[in-house]
């Protein structure tokens, strides 16, 4: 069985500041990891995914995530936050069965 | 290529009525997943279907909930005798295959309100 834990249900940053959203996974087999973004009243959109090809994964909108096996982490980062980044972000894992999502982190960007 | 379609987008039902939520996967996708999202909570897996088959319903409540994905037509999530606790956003996702590295493509969701 696999699961993910997102640390921090709410994160607030200033525009232009670094964005760091934390995700730790648990999986009995090598995992495949995903970050999705959800804007208000919309479905989820894929930001990026890790499929074991490279530990540093670049996604859309300037986001990237690094897979660290030793820390069982897959944190999402963006060097400079933009107002349009305000949304809910979900980490997900797929390893031995279906995809499982974290509880989400709501990102607020202050002007 | 149209994305995943869900309808209706908003659904209001009184307690005891039935709710039917529809999902048309992306063209070429034969795998459908249903999730429920409660306020301030993440996505909870409900059921995974392929055409005419329920593959995994481990996340479905034992009573009142059912799902199907017929040979023709959309996938249907059916909730009988709705209660206030069923109020949530229900999302459908599809994928072309069930490869573990395949991302799922999500629809816009159906927001169910039970009054």
Largest contact between protein chains?
A-B, 24 and 24 residues
* Gross morphology of chain A: globular
Number of strands of chain A: 11
User: What percentage of residues of chain B falls in helices of 4 or more residues?
Assistant: under 10%
The shape of chain B, in one word, is: globular
Overall pLDDT of chain B: 91
Quaternary state of the chains: heterodimer
Q: Strand content of the residues of chain A, in percent?
A: over 45%
Q: Specify the number of helices of chain A.
A: 0
Distance between the termini of chain A: 41 Å
The residue ranges of chain A in which pLDDT falls below 50 over 5 or more consecutive positions are: none
Strand content of chain B: over 45%
Biggest beta sheet attributes of chain A: 6 strands, mixed
Topology, pairings included?
The complex is a heterodimer of chains A (111) and B (115).
Chain A: E1 2-7, E2 10-14, E3 19-27, E4 32-38, E5 44-50, E6 56-58, E7 64-68, E8 73-78, E9 87-94, E10 100-101, E11 105-110
Parallel strand pairs in A: 2-11
Antiparallel strand pairs in A: 1-3, 3-8, 4-5, 4-9, 6-7, 7-8, 9-10, 9-11
Chain B: E1 5-7, E2 10-13, E3 19-24, E4 31-37, E5 43-50, E6 53-56, E7 65-68, E8 75-79, E9 88-95, E10 105-106, E11 110-114
Parallel strand pairs in B: 2-11
Antiparallel strand pairs in B: 1-3, 3-8, 4-5, 4-9, 5-6, 7-8, 9-10, 9-11
């Amino acid at each position: 069985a696999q699961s993910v834990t997102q640390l921090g249900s709410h994160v607030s940053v200033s525009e232009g500041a670094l964005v760091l959203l934390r995700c730790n996974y648990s999986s009995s087999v090598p995992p495949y990891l995903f970050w999705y973004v959800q804007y208000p009243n919309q479905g989820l959109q894929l930001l990026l995914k890790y499929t074991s090809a490279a530990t540093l994964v670049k996604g859309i909108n300037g986001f990237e995530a690094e897979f660290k096996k030793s820390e069982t982490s897959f944190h999402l980062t963006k060097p400079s936050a933009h107002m349009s980044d305000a949304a809910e972000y979900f980490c997900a894992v797929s390893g031995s069965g279906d995809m499982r999502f974290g509880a989400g982190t709501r990102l607020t960007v202050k002007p | 290529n149209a994305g995943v379609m869900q309808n209706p987008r908003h659904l209001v039902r009184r307690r005891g009525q039935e709710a039917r939520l529809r999902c048309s996967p992306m063209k070429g996708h034969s795998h459908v997943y249903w999730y429920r999202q409660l306020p301030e909570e993440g996505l909870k897996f409900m059921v995974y279907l392929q055409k005419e088959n329920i593959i995994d319903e481990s996340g479905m409540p034992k009573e009142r909930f059912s799902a199907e994905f017929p040979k023709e037509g959309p996938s249907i999530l059916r909730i009988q005798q709705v209660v206030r606790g069923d109020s949530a956003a229900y999302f459908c996702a599809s994928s072309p295959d069930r490869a573990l590295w395949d991302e799922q493509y999500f629809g816009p969701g159906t927001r169910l309100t039970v009054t």
